[in-house]
Amino acid sequence: MGRIITWGMGMPRGMDDTVMNGMMPDKGQEGGDGGHPGDMDLKAVLDRVSAGIMALDGTGRVTLVNEAMGRILGLVRDAVVGREIDETPLPARVRVMAKEALGGREVEEELELSNPPGTMVHLKAAPLGVEMGGGNPAVVILEDITARRRVEMIRRDFVANISHELRTPVANVTALVDALSHGAIGEPELVERFLKDLERETRRLSQLVEDLLILSRLESEEIAPQMEEVRIKQVVEEVLSDKEKLARRYEVNLRRGPTEGILLRADRRFLTVALSNLVDNAVKYNRQGGLVTVEACRRGGEVRISVTDTGIGIPRDQLSRVFERFYRVDKARSRESGGTGLGLSIVKHVMELHGGRVEVESEPGAGSTFTLVFRASSL
């Protein structure tokens, strides 16, 4: 029966026995020179393991390094295997922990590697509990946790950001209700003003919740786009019609450019959401009397749907960050207009769902163009 290996924050359970058995000589053979087929089988198995594994004999000589260990540390195995631990190019902390394990002590910790830079690893070194070569052999297990820590950081940032986004409208609603309940309700002019403020804040909360739900669905691995043949002209006309009231409020003009005869296989709902978010931003970040143009074309086997505005534009050094969740170029203007900071993140996820991409070109003070690009396979 095969061995089940469970990966966690520490050493994979069962791996210490596996490595120890592979290092020890078979009964009836003199020594453990690693020349028998069992050694080759062990190496083949360990090279399929995602965690880095290094074994040392009782003298402190490295006897085994799997592929993952070399990959994580950016080392060639031949530079490590067969050498004393202090003679290897392994990171200093790895060498120190390996020697502690050779001395009979089990140690583990997380550390950030300088090469490759930014790599976070969970390192565990432990003695194998048998005598070999005049000492106690040891095993070092290295797990690359960079992606895990990045996800945890994103989650922490997300919780902090959403808490911050909710705090202001909730505090405003609470203050307005408190004012109404303590006498303001008897003053018609104040009541009318406070009710308008309440409507604005509740609309902002509602939009935030709606955007969070959409983003959650898009990030779910279970969701699959409902592909259908979509006439771009119809979607553009629907979105522009829906944004007419908003455009009048901001005194911005909407224009539909060439879109006739262009078909696309896409999820109509999510395409509409993405385009709506782009037009929404183009209106809110425009200037009074400005223009928003939506057009589509075929180019090089792609369908490109562009939204161009004549607004405030985006500084060059911020272009790479505009698709991050809750990132705002103009924070004050975004909150004043009821923006949630999630719109462009939703657009990016919609395009990833379709196997496409979103491009942005912008000139501060002159305006921006966001383009949804669908691959030929989507046509």
Q: Which key terms come to mind for this protein?
A:
379 residues; alpha+beta; Beta-Lactamase; Helix Hairpins; Heat Shock Protein 90; five-stranded antiparallel β-sheet; 11 helices; elongated
Show the helix and strand layout.
Layout: H1 15-23, H2 37-46, E1 52-56, E2 62-65, H3 67-73, H4 92-102, E3 107-113, E4 119-127, E5 138-144, H5 146-181, H6 188-219, E6 227-231, H7 232-242, H8 244-250, E7 253-256, E8 263-267, H9 268-284, E9 291-299, E10 302-309, H10 331-336, H11 343-353, E11 357-363, E12 367-374
Structure description:
The protein is of the alpha+beta class and 379 residues long. The protein has three domains: 15-144, 2-Layer Sandwich (Beta-Lactamase); 147-223, Helix Hairpins, CATH 1.10.287.130; 225-379, Heat Shock Protein 90 (2-Layer Sandwich), CATH 3.30.565. It is built from eleven helices and twelve strands. The strands form three sheets. The protein has a five-stranded antiparallel β-sheet with strand order 2-1-5-4-3, with helices on both faces. Helix 6 (188-219) packs parallel to helix 11 and helix 7 packs across helix 9 (268-284). The longest helix is centred in the middle third of the chain and has 36 residues, at 146-181. The chain is elongated, with a radius of gyration of 30 Å.
Briefly, what is this?
The protein is α+β, with helices and mostly antiparallel strands and 379 residues long.
Q: Provide the CATH superfamily of the largest domain.
A: Histidine kinase-like ATPase, C-terminal domain
Q: Note poorly predicted spans.
A: 1-18, 24-34
The strand order across the widest sheet is: 2-1-5-4-3
Tell me, rounded to a whole number, the average pLDDT: 81
**Oligomeric state as shown:** single chain
Q: Provide the β-strand percentage band.
A: 15-25%
Report on the biggest sheet: 5 strands, antiparallel
Distance between the ends = 50 Å
Secondary-structure class: alpha+beta
Q: How many structural domains in the coordinates?
A: 3
The succession of helices and strands, N to C, reads HHEEHHEEEHHEHHEEHEEHHEE
Q: Count the strands?
A: 12
Mind telling me the C-alpha Rg?
A: 30 Å
CATH class of the largest domain: Alpha Beta
How much helix, percentage-wise, in residues?
Answer: 40-55%
The shape is: elongated
